[in-house]
Amino acid sequence: MLSFTEESKYRPGIDNSDRLDLLAKSLGNNYNEVLAEFQYAFVVFLIGQVYNGYDQWKRLIHLFSSCRAALVTHEKFFLEYLMTLFFQIKQCPDDFFIDVLSKDNFLSATLAWFFANVEDAPEILSPELRAKTAKVKAFFEKKFNRLFDLPSD
Question: Which of 24, 75, 114, 122 is 20 to 30 Å apart from 18, CA to CA?
């Protein structure tokens, strides 16, 4: 499995689009390979029940959710990511993420962050990306009976 360099792992910043680009660069600038790594981590986690797969899957979701600029520059990647994540979650039983979705858990907060990034930029994102994001968010909210919104300050 892939890993980030120590330097980029702890670099501060809200937009991690540059980290996504570095990851893709390490895979020959092939964003399909980034998605393949995401899928592989999920399979290792779900079928192999290996914690390292879960940890990598979690890190990739966090990375993808924190890429604001890349939503525009790599729209096709994010459309494919959304569909991949949708089908991954669809494969899981409804109670599979009960502990993972507990209050203050990474999946709830991280996906809320991703959905907020898309919702905050309607004028620069394509209608297709906005619509698919809204559908995936609605599916997750129905499946897990919870809202995926950022807490209001």
Answer: 122
Task: Measure the CA–CA gap between 105 and 99, rounded to whole angstroms.
Answer: 8
CA–CA separation, 26 vs 16, rounded Å? 16
What is the distance between the alpha carbons of residues 126 and 69, in angstroms, rounded to a whole number? Answer: 13
Number of CB atoms found within 10 A of residue 113's CB? 17
pLDDT in tens, 2-47: 443 444 444 444 799 999 999 999 999 999 999 999 999 999 998 8
Which alpha helices (DSSP H) does 10-153 contain, by range? 17-26, 31-46, 51-65, 70-73, 75-91, 106-119, 127-144
pLDDT at 99: 60
Q: Which domains does the chain have, with CATH numbers?
A: 6-144 (1.25.40.550)
Based on the number of CB atoms within 10 Å of its own CB, is 12 exposed (0-12), middle (13-18) or buried (19 or more)?
A: exposed
